[in-house]
Structure formats: C-alpha cells, structure tokens
Amino acid sequence: IYIIAHSMGNRPATMALANLLEKRPELLARFKQVILAAPDINAEVFREQIAPRLASLGLPVTLYASKNDKAIRASYQFAGWDRIGDIRGDIVGIPGLDFIDASNVTMNFLGHDYVASNRALLTDIATMIKTGGRAKDRGGLRGKPSPAPRHWEFP
Fold first, then answer.
1. Which of 8, 49, 94, 107 has a 20 to 30 Å separation from 14 between CA atoms?
2. pLDDT at 82
3. What's the confidence (pLDDT) of residue 79?
4. pLDDT tens for residues 74-130?
5. Tally of CB atoms within 10 A around 127
6. Helix (H), strand (E), coil (C) string for the chain
C-alpha cells in the first residue's frame, strides 16, 4: 500500500496511519511508502508530533514541498502558523524522512498542483513506487548540501 496525501489531507492521513499502525503493528509490512505532497500541516506539530511517530514505525516517508506554493502561503496568512510545506526559509532535516524541494519544477499560477501535473515529479514518484528506492537512490534529484544531504531538490 502506498499512501499519497495532498495539502490539508496530510494531517488526517498521517495521524490515522500512525494511530492504525501503533494499534495494529502487524499491518506495517503492507505499507511501502507514504508520500506527503504540498503538506498544509503546522510545521511545529509535524516536527514534534507527527514525524517522530512515523519515524518510530520505520515507514519510508517522502515529503514534497515548494517555496512557490501560494496556497500554502495563504494558509499561513490565515492561520498564522508555519506550514511544513512552505519552505521559503531554511529547510530543517527530519530524521527518517526524505524532504524534497520541488521549487524548481514547473507549476501552475497557484503553485499547488505540482505533484499531480509536473512530469519530473510524477517520474520521481513512479520510480519510487517501482523500485522502492529512497531519494538518495533515485536519479533526477540532487542532495543539498552536498555531500551529506539534509534534503533533496530537483535541478
């Protein structure tokens, strides 16, 4: 099973998955990857509550974010909390999670649909699903900073 969540759907998807697998650990082997696309989640809540729970399960997680996502910025302006999918500032590495900066891919005017509409990103997701490889093993991404990356980006 591959979980792909987008925008505001990331929070209930990640919380439900963590709850399920903590209660039913025998199901963990069925899940292959969690993909968090343009996550509209409070950054502090994600770092302190959600990411540690997912990491403790050992489930591979890939997060795609962009500094060009206007919908995520609007969410920040409305709620007043930093969003994990808004990377206009420094990217903070999160253990056990492949953080991918998608700012360099072509987007629509809102910049929020890049996961579903950009060929390079769709190819990356397809490669991830086909090979099971983490970001370091997939072509088309470069580590930042190099040689010990804290996150990845599309060239």
1. 107
2. 83
3. 79
4. 887 787 778 888 887 777 677 788 999 999 887 777 778 888 888 999 999 999 999
5. 16
6. CEEEEEHHHHHHHHHHHHHHHHHCHHHHHHCCEEEEECCCCEHHHHHHHHHHHHHHHCCCEEEEEECCCHHHHHHHHHHCCCECCECCCCCCCCCCEEEEECCCCCCCCCCCCHHHHCHHHHHHHHHHHHHCCCHHHCCCCEEECCCCCCEEECC
